Amino acid sequence: MGVQWVYPEFEVIRNDTRCTRCQVCVRQCANEVHRYEKEFNIMLSDESRCVNCQRCVSLCPTRALKIVKSNCELRENANWNQDTVREIYRQAESGGVLLSSMGNPKPYPVYWDKILINASQVTNPSIDPLREPMETKVFLGKKPSRLERDENGRLKCELAPRIELSMPVMFSAMSYGSISYNAHLSLARAASELGICYNTGEGGLHQDFYPYGANTIVQVASGRFGVHKNYLEAGAAIEIKMGQGAKPGIGGHLPGTKVGPDVSRTRMIPEGSDAISPAPHHDIYSIEDLRQLVYSLKEATEYRKPVIVKVAAVHNIAAIASGIARSGADIIAIDGFRGGTGAAPTRIRDSVGIPIELALAAVDQRLRDEGIRNHVSLIAGGSIRSSSDIVKAIALGADACYIATAAVLALGCHLCRTCQSGKCNWGIATQRSDLVKRLNPDTGARRLVNLITAWNREIKELMGGMGIHSIEALRGNRLMLRGIGLNSRELSVLGIAHAGE
């Protein structure tokens, strides 16, 4: 959008008494905000290009820079706020659909922040996790409803295929193409060291990452990019992506500018071509069709891999999950409307779907009411921000949680929400070689391991405070939750009592 319509959203404040004209900011900014005028020995900034990624601020050796939100705004109007007006200007200029990345930034209620965790006192003593064993290991997949014996009275010990995790958290789907090689390598290395899993997303699996297969979930999306027999056999589990929280009912789109030689080989598409996933799977229009694909994938891998079905959190999610549980799937992943993405239509991202907290509680209760809760495991995703969010999700009925935005934040993301441009200054959501190399995979993997290790320690502390020894004892234990500032209908859907009750 031209600056003639509205003043830039951000201002670059440069302290000339500190600035040494080293031009680090010029070299580090992929958006070409900064430039040096040699004739006058001054630094200038084109603020209309600034996305507030903070790269220049972080690397300025003399702390001469800062980016601030502009206070030069249009006349105040509660109905026509600044963002709304800017978006209308952009569409009036381009005639195109607005695209955005990352999660929904709108001020909808965050139910995690309105749910409190109960603690043990006196009659039900708390547990010291430093001195007593705490079990955070989880198994995802079908669970037997009862003990069974053979004709000789011996217990039947055969279990359905499952995923073993050292803790109830995994790295969610982020495709190679939408994120960089180094970002994917960081996730794979961290998952392997932690004993958890990461998800390929719908972009196939780069040949270098096959050694991490025991900690990899391979995804099958509507575009079937990179899907072949070796790919399916490489992972610990297979995920059918029906939808995601940031764009329910919408397919995927990777711009051709991001499809270089490596991405082309991995996705099995021509170099430089757009990778467009249709909104629906064109072979799935019913639960019966979904069942066919589930069993086709099981047959292709000799029934050795659990199959996950990932869906967005929508208004009838409980009924949908009930059908998926009967389709033969082993695990259901539910993605709430705050889930991140590399690119989505802005109106879809900000207006479609429901919060993961409400969806998760509704699904868990529906499956329990129908007596099929043990037929599937549940994974919750869509803005899981901390260890306490994980504990609350498990108490609402999840077996484990997916994280993605938290993971890329650990890698250095500054949430500037311009992933779709391919100009990620932190080397995460880009395929430009000069930008990719900014993310050191050794450093990235270490930061991810540190984050999840810290969360795991906090989970044990929280469980100890509740007087609970294991994740399994916490799963669906809504007696350990209380709501605050919620109305009776919200409390009813969540299945929890109000604080003080």
Question: What would a concise description of this structure say?
Answer:
It contains 16 helices and 21 strands. By secondary structure, it is of the alpha/beta class.
Q: How many beta-strand runs?
A: 21
Largest sheet: 8 strands, parallel, barrel
CATH homology-level superfamily of the largest domain: Aldolase class I
CATH secondary-structure class of the largest domain = Alpha Beta
Estimated radius of gyration: 24 Å
Sequence of strands across the biggest β-sheet = 9-10-11-12-15-16-18-19
Describe the fold and architecture.
With 501 residues, the chain is an alpha/beta fold. It has two domains: 10-96, Alpha-Beta Plaits (2-Layer Sandwich), CATH 3.30.70; 116-120 and 128-498, TIM Barrel. 30% of the residues lie in helices and 15% in strands. The protein is built from 16 helices and 21 strands. The protein has helices spanning 24-28, 55-59, 82-94, 181-194, 229-234, 261-267, 287-300, 317-325, 346-351, 356-369, 387-396, 405-411, 433-436, 441-466, 471-474, 488-494; strands spanning 10-14, 34-37, 42-45, 65-69, 99-100, 115-117, 138-140, 163-165, 169-173, 198-199, 216-220, 237-241, 253-254, 275-276, 307-312, 331-335, 344-345, 377-381, 400-403, 481-483, 497-498. The chain has an eight-stranded parallel beta barrel with strand order 9-10-11-12-15-16-18-19, surrounded by six helices. A three-stranded mixed sheet has the order 6-20-21. Strands 1-4 form a two-stranded antiparallel sheet. Helix 11 links the parallel strand 18 (377-381) and strand 19. Helix 8 (317-325) packs across helix 10 and helix 11 packs across helix 14 (441-466). The chain is globular. The mean pLDDT is 94.
